[in-house]
Amino acid sequence: MSTSGNWLGRTGRLALILAGIAVIWALINHYGPSIGITTATEKILTMTCACLLLAITRYFLSISLNVKEIYYRRKARQDHNLPQEESRLAQTAQHHETLTRLFLAQRDNYGRFWPRKVQILLLTGSTADVELLVPGLTSQLWQEGNRTILLWGGEPSTSLDSDWFNALRALRRRPLDGIVWVTSALTHYAKTEGGEPYQPILPDTMDAIAQGFSNLYQRLGWRLPLYVWSLQSIKDNDADRVTQSVGCLLPAGCNPQELGVRLAELVPTLIERGIQQVSDRTQHLFLLKLADLLAHRSGFIAEPLSALINPYRPSPLAGVIFSPASFNTKRSVKHHWQKDKRWDVLIDSLCSLPTGLAAKKRGFVWGKMLRIIIAAAMLLWAVGMVLSFTVNRHAVINSSAQVKLAANTIHSVSERLHAQLDVQKILDSLQYRQLKGSPWYSRFGLSQNDTLLTALWPHYEASGLPLIRDAVALHLEENLNFLARLPVAASPRDQPLQAAYQQLKLYLMLAQPEKMDASWFAKTLLINWPQRKDLTDDIWQDIAPPLLDFYARNLPYHPQWRLATDEEWVNQVQTLLVRQMGLLNSENSLYQKMLAKVAQQYVDMNLADMTGDTDAARIFTTASSMTAVPGEFTRKAWNEAVKPAIEKMSSDRREEMDWVLGENKNTFLEQDSPEALQSRLRDRYFADFSASWLKFLNGLHWQQAKTFSDAIDQLTLIADVRQSPLVALMNTLRMQGKTGQSSAAISDSLVKSAKNLLNRDEQPAIDQQSGERGPLDATFGPLISLMDGKTGTQGNIPLNLKTFLTRVTQVRLKLQQVVNAADPQAMTQTLAQTVFQGKAIDLTETRDYGSLLAASLGREWNGFGQTMFVQPMEQAWQQVLTPAAESLNAQWRAVIVDDWNNKFGGRYPFKNTASEVSLPLLGSYLNGESGRITRFLQTRLNGVLHKEGSHWVQDRINAQGLTFNLAFLKAIDTLSYLSEIVFINGEAKIHFELRPATAKDIMQTDLIVDNQKLSYYNQLPNWKRFSWPGDTQAPGASLSWISTQAGTRQYADLQGAWGLIRLLDKAEVTPYQGVNSSFHLRWKTHDGWPLNYTLRTETGEGPLALLQLRNFVLPSKIFSIGATEEGS
Question: What whole-number distance in Å separates Cα of residue 5 and Cα of residue 1065?
Fold first, then answer.
């Protein structure tokens, strides 16, 4: 037995134990005091516990084995599996105990890594067959010899011992190297006790065996190579016979036919070796008999084994081994197995099995996948390292080149600054990567980001500061030197003080890194330094922003870059600027700080706060840009915080200078009294107060009502004094508008009111003494006057809020009567038509009154006045107009449009057809005095539409809320224009003159209009007067000509009353230059000859005006309802 696990021996073990105890004692003495082990007793106790812990760890398996034996023995006694006198029976070890003993034995033999040094085979089959091959295995459960362990696995066709195989899985990662099925059923020579030969294995039996192997693989979790060991019942028990391996190894995926071929291939070898053995001794017949069996009855072996390589349930059959029963191989030493040469082929093949037969873990092989992943990761990591090396090397080389170029004074300033810009880009990139992480392709353990960044900063300081910081300082010093050279008593009013202040601030930022504001610095410096002497303007404007911004951003992190300044010179510049700018800076600073402090103490005042418990959301909405008035601009804030703060700031005359002008100079304002400062701060505050309230109030919008009833409900709400959001808002505005009024002004107002009550008859029409008594009177005065009824009068009606609410109530009652009427739509139309006819009603009068109220507030309150006083009435009027407009559209269609289309539709000139419109009938519609269209407009739209000259114009007041159809207005303007030209006396009659003109190769032209003929023989042309339509029974127009190349030819012969208009439609008409009443007419023949005439009219375009009726369509709608509608 190997003793490799005990290489130290007893002496070595003792020495190792003593050395370990000494090391533990030394550690306790060295580290014990730091964890509270100080006394000798504590050290000894700790030492004892440590040794005990190590001993338990070392002998844990042995202790665990003994504990488990005791436990299972007691459990067996409780389950009555053992008799009372247990000691009389040989104790059978449990499976886990057996494998634990196996583990301990192999560790002693081969060391702690024994699983890698041995091969483990599982033998299955009947107990008798296995005992013939390996005597004692079935009772001992395992045997070991020559680094091979044999385990007993039971019969394959029976149910598996779950405990045994579960314990096997825990033995090592791959529990087995192979499975051997030992069987004596694959022999044809065996005889039963009755003398009958053995019957071949039945298919059902082989199926059960194959299923057993499949279950075994599933239980173990591994697919293991399977060997079939066929014990041949051939009497050859001579101990002197030479043992040898007899069998064949099979390839992966072997089928039954190939199995038979492989078995047949053994026959020649068996015969050769069998003859040799028989020659030595005639009793050695095993090989020859086996050869005979394989040669003549190989199917007796191959057919049963075909069940194991069935394609539907294949087993990894790796080989078939033949041998007789073992002879004299049982050993007296327990668990020891003596290997002979019969096992050589099987054991040697375990290391060289093809891939398809090698042991393989079932299911997803995490280990293999992990190895592939690790290998791929290593490959990717290697590629990444190469890529990272290349990237980092390029970065280092590029940075080095740019640094050298920026530092080389041989090159021009432009080249150095461009190189410096490249260095800054590299530094920017390195800084970003330092914060956010380097790109993946530059990492892989080779990233030089931080190292390169650290190395570049000194180079930037050496080359960048002279080019950037020193140049900036020199420029600022030159600009400030003029101011510094001025005497203290001088008054440099022409000096741009704001620019000087900015330049000083820029200069001090270079000297005080903690004050640096990078964005302001770069932007302001570029404005103050648009040109650099040693660079062209375009280059400087291109590279300056990034250069300055980078320096400014990094200066606070590198204080050593600060600029050394001349303190005396800086103090001189500060003193001069303080004297000139101190007042303005301190006043603005005080005001802004005061507002910021007050804003934190008072919440903003929104619309709900201004209207109290009223339902303001039903009628008002605020603008999205300003939903509330800032809390610092309220009367409460003024009285409690702002006013005391201003008084305190005014009494404290100390100047609050910023750091640029010197915080510790204790400069006092001169030539300015506290009263003047207080007055300026008050005026500024109340100006902002007024602006905030105006912006909020002018941003209010009237909530649009969706229905007529909603509009009435809104009017009801605003007219109810107790619940009106308008009244509540106006009361709030009156209170806020009196912010800042002194108590004397209030008492004077009360005295004056009492006098007015006693002397009403002596009151002047306009009170000239009613001036401003408060800082907000200029803004809120008109509004307060409206509340107090002091705005003025319209006739005998006063302009005030109370009168407006009374009128709104009257309108609301009138509209409710409309809603409650038997026919609300008819009553609504009656109201609207009353206005259309030019008569006034309560609604329009109240609307006009609201417009007057809004106008009385002034332009500053325009948005507020429109929302409060105009839009409510406009909305109500719109609700009345909508059904009335629809009704008028219907009347227009029924009275005018439908008849028009019936009488004129499809006729010339409205359509280019042979059928013509009757001129008298057309005149009945277009007559300017009594035409049907004119009468309709004058009787039904007189209040909203009137005629100015030849145009119809909508009334700007009464037509508010109405949207006229633009196509309708255009159409009636066209018809009105035609009526003044064609139907001026009621009947169609036009007088005009024609004069022929010469044309090349034209000898004669003849023009006939309603039997009125004009002939031209190429002589001096004369004017001829025509009347249209003519008094003739055969109306029409014709045109003919005679050329030098042909006789008389006809251009056109158009019969009918509209013949002239048809002929004019074919002519090219151009206005006569310089004469508004003349037109040049040209008819072009099909041969290209021009026939020229000049037309002179008495009114307008004369007969040419009728050409406007071509394709004319009379719109069917007067008003556009809702969205914009096209006229039809």
Answer: 126
